[in-house]
Amino acid sequence: MVVEYGEFKGNKMIILKRSDDDNYPFQFGKAKAKLIVENFEAIKKFAEED
């Protein structure tokens, strides 16, 4: 996992990559980061489902 930080239209972004060569990183800003943190348990449960 590679974690980088960037900017989009003046807003700070976090960029998560599976590797340095990942062409399709997962990136989001502070508003979505807060939403993810607030709903972490629901997201974790979803990820662990069969």
Structure described in brief:
This protein has 50 residues and is an alpha+beta fold.
Overview of this structure, please?
This protein has one domain. 36% of the residues lie in helices and 36% in strands. The chain is built from two helices and three strands, in the order βββαα. Strands 1-2-3 form a three-stranded antiparallel sheet.
Core attributes:
single chain; 2 helices; alpha+beta; three-stranded antiparallel sheet; flat; 3 strands; 50 residues
Ranges where pLDDT stays below 50 over 5 or more residues in a row are none
Query: What is the strand content?
Result: 35-45%
In spatial order, strands of the major sheet run: 1-2-3
Secondary-structure-based class equals: alpha+beta
Number of helices: 2
Q: What is the C-alpha radius of gyration, as a whole number of Å?
A: 13 Å
Number of strands: 3
Biggest sheet descriptor: 3 strands, antiparallel
Global outline: flat
Q: Describe the oligomeric state of these chains in a short phrase.
A: single chain
N→C terminal distance: 23 Å
Number of domains: 1
User: What's the helix-strand series?
Assistant: EEEHH
- Average pLDDT, all residues: 97
> Which percent bin holds the helix content?
25-40%
Topology:
Blueprint: E1 2-8, E2 11-17, E3 26-29, H1 30-38, H2 40-48
